[in-house]
């Protein structure tokens, strides 16, 4: 077990639930339906990858390889970049602003998610 990954995953999952509730109850009157959908996408991927982080932490007990640890780090970075940039897009819109070129962080975060999943698979296949 990789205790740090499980702990961070659980905290990030709780944050995803909080943000999801905020989106469902607090944002509807503040943003357009399109922006709300962007926010919901951020929350959905945030939650999926928080669970993936917990799973990677649990798998580490059986597959204690470098790829599994690296996957956990990339899941965290992916959440920050992908979901974080979507949240920033929505919140900047509330105040009439824009995140400008930082919108490129969303697909970069998605690439981090993909690499993390591949590393998890490699870690399972390459058990030491």
Automatic annotation (TrEMBL):
Transmembrane spans: 47-63, 70-96, 102-125
Superkingdom of origin: Bacteria
UniProt-listed InterPro entries: DUF423
Location of the protein in the cell: Membrane
Keyword Ubl conjugation among record annotations: no
Cross-referenced Pfam families: DUF423
Keywords: Membrane, Transmembrane, Transmembrane helix
Entry similarity comment: Belongs to the UPF0382 family.
PANTHER family referenced in this protein's UniProt entry, alphabetically: TRANSMEMBRANE PROTEIN 256
Protein name: DUF423 domain-containing protein
Species, as recorded: Nemorincola caseinilytica
Origin organism lineage: Bacteria, Pseudomonadati, Bacteroidota, Chitinophagia, Chitinophagales
């Amino acid at each position: 077990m990789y205790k740090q990954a499980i702990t961070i995953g659980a905290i990030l999952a709780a944050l995803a639930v909080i943000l999801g509730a905020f989106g469902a109850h607090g944002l509807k009157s503040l943003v357009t339906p399109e922006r709300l959908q962007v926010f919901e996408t951020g929350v959905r991927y945030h939650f999926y990858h928080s669970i993936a982080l917990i799973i990677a932490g649990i798998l580490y007990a059986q597959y204690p390889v470098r790829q599994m640890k690296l996957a956990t780090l990339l899941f965290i970075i992916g959440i920050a970049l992908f979901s974080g940039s979507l949240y920033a897009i929505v919140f900047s819109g509330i105040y009439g602003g824009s995140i400008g070129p930082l919108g490129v962080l969303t697909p970069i975060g998605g690439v981090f998610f993909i690499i993390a999943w591949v590393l998890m698979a490699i870690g399972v296949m390459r058990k030491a």
